[in-house]
Write a structure and sequence with these properties.
Blueprint lengths: L3 E6 L2 E5 L4 E5 L7 E4 L1 E6 L2 E4 L8 E11 L3 E7 L4 E7 L2 E11 L6 H8 L1
């Protein structure tokens, strides 16, 4: 299995690799580059587990865009009382692309490829 990290974003944990695109809870930032502190990093054959975060490690990502998820319909009804209530909800999200997973003192997978070329 290739290098990966587990990050915490919006109260949820995501397993990410370099180049992954994922939709996370909406971020209140105007910047195009964001960084996450990983909970766990697998780097080659080494596994770094944080307590709660891995010291000196970071996951860099760029914001691709924002949007709203699929509509969730909430329908309430009470029988024999002529009561029906319909509401809809669309959860906002931010789509990010993972650019780099870096640990302290170690080269990332993309940096190793650049050195080989």
């Amino acid at each position: 299995m290739s290098d990966y990290a587990i990050i915490l974003a919006g109260g949820k944990q995501y397993l990410v690799r370099e180049g992954d695109r994922l939709k996370i809870e909406k971020l209140e930032t105007e910047e195009k580059k964001v960084e996450f502190q990983p909970l766990l990093v697998k780097d080659g054959d080494q596994l770094h587990i944080g307590s709660p975060l891995v010291e000196g490690a970071k996951v860099s990502a760029t914001v691709v865009g924002t949007g709203k998820g699929a509509k969730v319909v909430v329908f309430k009804k009470r029988r024999r009382e002529q009561y029906r209530n319909t509401r809809g909800h669309r959860q906002p999200y931010t789509e990010v692309e993972i650019k780099k997973i870096a640990t302290a003192g170690r080269k990332t997978k993309s940096e190793k490829k650049e050195e080989e070329n």
